[in-house]
Structure formats: structure tokens, C-alpha cells
Amino acid sequence: MSADLATLLDGLTRMRGVRGALLVSAEDGITVAGALLEEEQGPALAALAATLLARVRELIAETGHEPPRFLHLQSAEGLLLLAPAAGDLVVVSVAGREALIGPLRLEMLRIAEQLD
User: Fold this and answer.
1) Is residue 2 very low, low, confident or very high in pLDDT (cuts 50, 70, 90)?
2) What angle do CA 78, 80, 82 make, to 5 degrees?
3) pTM score of the predicted model
4) How far is CA 105 from the centre of its chain?
5) By 3-state DSSP, what share of the chain in percent is helix, strand and coil, each rounded to 5?
6) Is 87 left (phi over 0), alpha (psi -120 to 50) or beta?
7) How many percent of the chain have pLDDT more than 70?
8) I need a labelling partner for 104 at 20 to 30 A (CA). Which of 56, 68, 79, 113 fits?
């Protein structure tokens, strides 16, 4: 992982409630860079994020709308957040329910813009 990518994700992982952050290839679901508390979950999470984003893009394209800039999934245990970036990359965060969603969303969108 390049130092620049590590620095970008490091800011996310320091935010309240964030359990991990990944930079994922949307095309093949491979982790480009990542920092997770439970590293063994990385490949599965990367694949899930890429598949989810691809399916949402397909469904939204069928309605004639622009692709999403941000996806927010919430469960009883926490959050899965995705911010598509330029080309083939997706910024992914996993967070607990205690996470402050607003600042986290803004930081993810900022990172996605830097990758453009």
C-alpha cells in the first residue's frame, strides 16, 4: 500500500466508531489499501462492497438517474458506508452505531474527491 493511500485511510480509522476502512477496486472487489480491526474480514468486505455498488449502479441506471455518490447501509450492529471515487475505486468504511455519520460521510467524500 502506498504511503499516500495509507495516510488517507488513516484519517478515517481515527474517527469515532470507525472499525476499519478500505480502498477497493469496484471492478473486481480486490482491496487496494486497507486498515481493519479484523483483517481476515477484508477480502469478504471488499467483495461485498464491489458487488453491492455494481448492483445499485445497475438499478439506478435503469431509472435514468446518475450513479450514487454515497451508499449508507445500517444494521442493528453498525454501518457499512461506500463512497465511489474516480475510475474503479471505492472508499469503504465499517463503523459501529456510535459513529458520527455526518463527519464520517464528509471525510469519505473528501477522500473520494482526492482520488479523482
Assistant:
1) low
2) 155
3) 0.90
4) 10
5) 40, 30, 30
6) left
7) 95
8) 56
Q: Which CATH class is domain 3-114?
A: alpha beta
* Mean pLDDT, rounded, for 94-116: 93
Distance CA 10, CA 42 (A): 16
Residues 6+ apart with CB under 8 A from 94: 18, 19, 20, 21, 36, 45, 78, 79, 80, 81
Neighbour order of strands in the sheet with 78-84: 31-36, 18-25, 89-96, 78-84, 71-74
Q: Calculate mean pLDDT across residues 67-88.
A: 92
| Mutual angle of helices 3-13 and 101-114, in 10-degree steps | 170
Provide the 10 A C-beta neighbour count for residue 3. Answer: 7
